[in-house]
From TrEMBL:
GO function terms (MF aspect): oxidoreductase activity; zinc ion binding
Name of the protein described by the UniProt record: Zinc-type alcohol dehydrogenase-like protein
Keyword field contains Metal-binding: yes
InterPro entries: ADH-like_N (IPR013154), ADH_Zn_typ-1 (IPR014182), ER (IPR020843), GroES-like_sf (IPR011032), NAD(P)-bd_dom_sf (IPR036291), Zinc-ADH_QOR/CCCR (IPR051603)
Domain Enoyl reductase (ER): 10-332
Amino acid sequence: MTAIVQEVYGGPEVLHFAQVPRPALRPQDLLVRVRAIAVNPVDTKVRAGGPANTPVPDAPKILGWDGAGIVAAVGPEVDRFQVGDEVYFAGDITRAGCYAEYVAVDERIVGHKPQTLSFEAAAAMPLTSLTAWEGIIETLGVDEGGRDAGRSILIVGGGGGVGSIAIQIAKRVCRLHVVATASRPESQAQCRKMGADQVIDHSQRLRPQLQELGYTGVDYIFSTAPLGNFPQLVEVLNPLGKICLILGGPEAKALDVSGLVPIRGSVAWELMFTRPRLNVEPEKQGAILNRVAELLDDQTLESTLSAVLSWRDIQEAHRMLETGHTIGKIALRVDG
Ligand SMILES: NC(=O)c1ccc[n+]([C@@H]2O[C@H](COP(=O)([O-])OP(=O)(O)OC[C@H]3O[C@@H](n4cnc5c(N)ncnc54)[C@H](OP(=O)(O)O)[C@@H]3O)[C@@H](O)[C@H]2O)c1
């Protein structure tokens, strides 16, 4: 089959087309004919994850975990899907990705594709939706049914891939009052389009901006930003409030949580690959993707797709993502 692979670490130029064998199936795997993929920062981080031009250990490596396509074959223990089903998925970072004509993916972490969306609009959704859903509903414990309606949440980095769907889930599913952050007019407009009630600028101090809007603090914080701004998050958290972070890195070692003690605040992480990687109830991800598909089909949620390219433009897609300022999601057609 045709796939986009890398043999060495480096910039977008290390990505190239090659012929590789179709993946072998495990008992609970689907073989999916991939119709569209989406790019995520994890793709660029793995691509550049070692000294430039040194070999990647599992070459030829296939990146890319967000995909949508059609089930072409099933493993002997598959019981949720059939050949011909349209599916979408965010995959498992420990396995080969979906920059390829075919990918093998465990059926438990796959959802039925939203029927009303194109393959490109569907491929834009899984990884970020799982991150936002697990972060807001599981990690922060916000009620999906609206029991927490009217409580406040600050979503940091609201214009990006994760932020765009996080705003929608917080506002349109959980009915929270949403303040999002964005630093540019285009990303601020994206936050409002996704449903944010108010927008402030993460390149400026957060507390005075929230005070100006009349807040003494917020009940929840969902941050897609690097951890450098953590002291600012603690500063704007209400007593008994909760913070969900989705990034780690070296700053995590020195995170000063002392400001959370007197306010009984909490901080916890969301990492969407934890369930498949450590085999922790992976079927919950299939269930979340099916729920998100229903919400997309009944138009409670909308796809965050902002640009469609051909997979021939994969290097350009990586360059766009590496600006750190894309809006919504970039998807690529697996064509030609
Ligand atoms: N833990 C997980 O499971 C998980 C899952 C998905 C993503 N992630 C990570 O989360 C981060 C965001 O992912 P994404 O897919 O949303 O990326 P993205 O689409 O590339 O995010 C772009 C957005 O980030 C905003 N941004 C840039 N610098 C910022 C800063 N210092 N503070 C706040 N916002 C900033 C930009 O807003 P402006 O243009 O307005 O500045 C832009 O709208 C990435 O590092 C990614 O690797 C983690």
